Structures are given as structure tokens and as C-alpha cells.
UniProtKB/TrEMBL annotation:
Protein's organism: Lentinula edodes (Shiitake mushroom)
Record GO terms (molecular function): ATP binding; NEDD8 activating enzyme activity
Active site annotation, chain numbering: C208
Domain THIF-type NAD/FAD binding fold: 42-213
Protein's name in the database: NEDD8-activating enzyme E1 catalytic subunit
GO cellular component: a single term: nucleus
């Protein structure tokens, strides 16, 4: 629980209360939102955000501005200059720093009373007890394997005798102008693993992934052709039918970090 009542002022959450107080299609006549629910959302709920990239920045900002005050964020990447055009929590002076740490500092400086706890590392570094402390997990990941791991972890946490062990997962993703989001209740609804056959083979890779943490041979090839070729050859266009160009691409991609 976060003790930040002194940072609340009259009318701070009026815009959110208009939504929380509105009756829905399934509410009884004379519905009134309970103060207990609002207090839980604002002063007790603990939220974990996985990923502080393009989608993660939006998630963190929206959670803070909605009234959630105890937020944790995990990300293993550092900030690249290519991130600055869309990941609005970062500035040129932040290049090379941890995304999670910089994002947390930005949110806390901008939104009074919000506590954002960052972790610069892999989600696999944390044990079950770490994930059990949260009321909700929200993913803004660009890796299928990372999604599968957190999905399996949350499913395995569920104890039928302990309802609090069920941690709802909101999974989101973007590519270009397209995006998707879904709510997963482990062991109750279909999970991420259930829908793997519906995934398309990726045809594009996030620049921040291929520059900082390449995980596949394709990432290294993309890094060499998209980032290194213009840096070395300037405006000259790569000719994929030219053996010399392809040999250069192979040599540079083979020497890329991470693979």
C-alpha cells in the first residue's frame, strides 16, 4: 500500500470518477460506485508493467494519470536514439540508460504521489513470490518467448484454494499502425499459449530490439542492413544481387552482438 494521501487534492480524480460512477448495462437500478473500490484502485492496487518501450511508455503514463499509485516496471533494454521519436518518456540525454529506470523517474517527477519501482533486467530473474504481490500484470512486450514465459508463470501460480493467486494478465502489442490487446484470466480463459497458432510470422522487427538485444539471426541481419549499412556506406543502396554487398552483410551480421 502506498501512503500518498497528502498528494491528493480536491477534484483531482473527478474526470476518472465520471467513468467509475457511470452505471453500466449490467448494473442494478440505482447503482452507486463504492468508495471502497476507488480507495483500492488508488491506494492499494499494485500493478506490474512488463516492457517500457513504445507501448510501455503509454501504459505507465495512463496508469499514473488514471490514479494508480503503486506501479512496478521491468525492462531489460537501454534507450537508443531511435526510440526518441515515439517513446515519449525519454530524452536525448537518456540514451544508453535503462528504460525502466528513466521511465520510472519521469513518471514520478511528472505525476505527484505516484511511486514507480523499476527493475533493469529480465522477467526471468524474478521468482514466484515477486509476481504474487501484484493485483494485475500488463505486458507491452515485443517478444513471443517473453510473452509465453510470463503467461506460463502466471498460470502455474494459480492455487485453486487461494483465489488471490490468480493474477489477471493484460497483453498488448503493436506493429506499425496496428495493435491488439486482450485480457487473460489464467486457468479461466484461454491463455496466450492457446492462440500461438494464430500468430503471423513477423516481417518487421523493432529497431530497439535489433540494436540493443538481438535475439534471432534475423535481428542481426536487420541490424546490419538497416543500421550499419547506411552508417558505413552513406546513401549507397545495398544491391542484394551483388556478391560483394551480400558478403559484407554476412560478415557484419555474423559479428553482431548477442547471437
Amino acid at each position: 500500500m502506498v501512503d500518498v494521501q497528502e498528494n491528493d487534492w480536491e477534484g483531482r480524480y473527478d474526470h476518472i470518477d465520471q467513468i467509475l460512477d457511470a452505471p453500466g448495462p449490467r448494473t442494478d437500478e440505482g447503482f452507486m460506485a463504492g468508495d471502497g473500490v476507488k480507495d483500492f484502485l488508488r491506494n492499494q492496487a499494485k500493478i506490474l508493467v512488463i516492457g517500457a518501450g513504445g507501448l510501455g511508455c503509454e501504459i505507465l503514463a495512463n496508469l499514473a494519470l488514471t490514479g494508480f499509485k503503486d506501479i512496478h516496471v521491468i525492462d531489460m533494454d537501454t534507450i537508443d536514439i531511435s526510440n526518441l521519436n515515439r517513446q515519449f518518456l525519454f530524452r536525448p540525454k537518456d540514451v544508453g540508460k535503462s528504460k525502466a529506470i528513466v521511465a520510472a523517474e519521469f513518471i514520478m517527477n511528472r505525476v505527484p504521489g505516484v511511486l514507480v519501482t523499476p527493475y533493469f533486467g529480465k522477467i526471468q530473474d524474478k521468482d514466484d513470490d515477486y509476481y504474487l504481490q501484484f493485483n494485475l500484470v500488463i505486458c507491452g512486450l515485443d517478444s513471443v518467448e517473453a510473452r509465453r514465459w510470463i503467461n506460463a508463470t502466471l498460470v502455474n501460480l494459480v492455487d485453486p484454494e487461494n483465489p488471490e493467486s490468480l493474477k489477471p494478465l493484460i497483453d498488448g502489442g503493436t506493429e506499425g499502425f496496428k495493435g491488439q490487446a486482450r485480457v487473460i484470466l489464467p486457468t479461466i480463459t484461454s491463455c496466450y499459449e492457446c492462440s500461438l497458432d494464430m500468430l503471423n510470422k513477423p516481417t518487421a522487427f523493432p529497431i530497439c530490439t535489433i540494436a540493443n538485444t538481438p535475439r534471432l539471426p534475423e535481428h542481426c541481419i536487420e541490424w546490419a542492413s538497416v543500421l550499419e549499412w547506411p552508417r558505413v556506406h552513406g546513401d549507397k543502396k545495398m544491391d542484394t544481387d551483388n556478391p560483394d554487398d551480400i558478403s559484407w552483410l554476412y560478415a557484419v551480421a555474423s559479428g553482431s552482438k548477442g547471437i
